[in-house]
Amino acid sequence: MYSSKISGVGHYVPENVVTNDDLSKVMDTNDAWIQERTGIKERRHIKKGDGNSTSIMGVKASKIALERAGLTPDDIDMIVFATLSPDMYFPGGGVQVQEMMGMRTIPALDVRNQCSGFVYSVSVADQFIKTGMYKHVLVIGSENHSGGLDFTTRGRGVSVIFGDGAGAVVVSRNEREKGGILSTHLHSEGKHKDELALQGPATQHWVPEIIAANDQENIPYYPHMNGQFVFKHAVVRFSEVIKEGLEANGLTTADIDLFIPHQANLRISQYIQHKMKVADEKVFNNIQKYGNTTAASIPIALSEAWEQGKIKDGDLVVLAAFGSGFTWGSVVIRW
Ligand SMILES: CC(C)(COP(=O)(O)OP(=O)(O)OC[C@H]1O[C@@H](n2cnc3c(N)ncnc32)[C@H](O)[C@@H]1OP(=O)(O)O)[C@@H](O)C(=O)NCCC(=O)NCCS
């Protein structure tokens, strides 16, 4: 068996900054409420006409990741693209990236695991590298949430939290004897599928049905979130799956050099940090600037942390995510 490593990281966020005060102009909310409950100060939203989309942002992030890995699009053997907000119902973002980057007829796989999408995708890439089937897998998390949120007071419990952006990494065969991606751990619990969900358009809520009902009060194509329920489950599952990852490698929380949680909510990150007793400088959060960018949040954070020199060779980096499904997972990396 081979082992894999992350050989390049990149991210892209749209230029358009939307502050909490901007949101309070279109719905009944305020900066104090949002900051107190989520830690978010601002987020980025695609502006109509700025040339961005989920797959285009994915390409922008990927180009940076490839350059930092010292690779060209021809070197990539597979694309894994995670998003819950694709440009089109089908086909998925993977083939769009393959086309836009002029890649060979390599496989393009789309992963639909919402906030855990990136962690799931890294795990998929890791398996293909381990078996020796591929050498370089491009993993992308990208989201255009702003195109699909309810920016009225009715949707405020959800729409203030989410933002747009993309992150990408190249997962490559590890030529060194040690280190790299040590292990990945994935879980799901479908009985909670309705607690954070977007019902339509889909085959259960097909477009003609939605148009015919035209019910302005019960709109299944905006996301629904049972916030407190999600919060309670998130803190438990995050902690479990981090512990699982560390124990599988004979490590403890004291060994962590950098913990990058999915940027769900700053209060969730802080809760887990305190539970694990990890020092502030060992946890990377940027939700304050970008909100929750779902599948993009970990790779954006990873890329920013790397740019800021917070990840050095030999560091133990732990990634963990939780989200709709529910699904959750962790990745333990010796950088
Ligand atoms: C969403 C979340 C911030 C809401 O915080 P909360 O303390 O649970 O708030 P509640 O939903 O109980 O709402 C409390 C009140 O604030 C109001 N409220 C909701 N959103 C608001 C907003 N954006 N601005 C102002 N008030 C708001 C509610 O209407 C409610 O008012 P009421 O008491 O008059 O009925 C919180 O539950 C949370 O972060 N959950 C986890 C979400 C998450 O991480 N999702 C991503 C998972 S990957």
From TrEMBL:
Single GO MF descriptor: 3-oxoacyl-[acyl-carrier-protein] synthase activity
Keyword list, A-Z: Acyltransferase, Cytoplasm, Fatty acid biosynthesis, Fatty acid metabolism, Lipid biosynthesis, Lipid metabolism, Multifunctional enzyme, Transferase
InterPro entries: ACP_syn_III_C (IPR013747), ACP_syn_III_N (IPR013751), FabH (IPR004655), Thiolase-like (IPR016039)
Summary of the function given for this chain in its UniProt record: Catalyzes the condensation reaction of fatty acid synthesis by the addition to an acyl acceptor of two carbons from malonyl-ACP. Catalyzes the first condensation reaction which initiates fatty acid synthesis and may therefore play a role in governing the total rate of fatty acid production. Possesses both acetoacetyl-ACP synthase and acetyl transacylase activities. Its substrate specificity determines the biosynthesis of branched-chain and/or straight-chain of fatty acids.
Record region (ACP-binding): 263-267
HAMAP family: FabH
Similarity section: Belongs to the thiolase-like superfamily. FabH family.
Record protein name field: Beta-ketoacyl-[acyl-carrier-protein] synthase III
Protein's organism: Patiriisocius marinistellae
Record text about domains: The last Arg residue of the ACP-binding site is essential for the weak association between ACP/AcpP and FabH.
GO cellular component, one term: cytoplasm
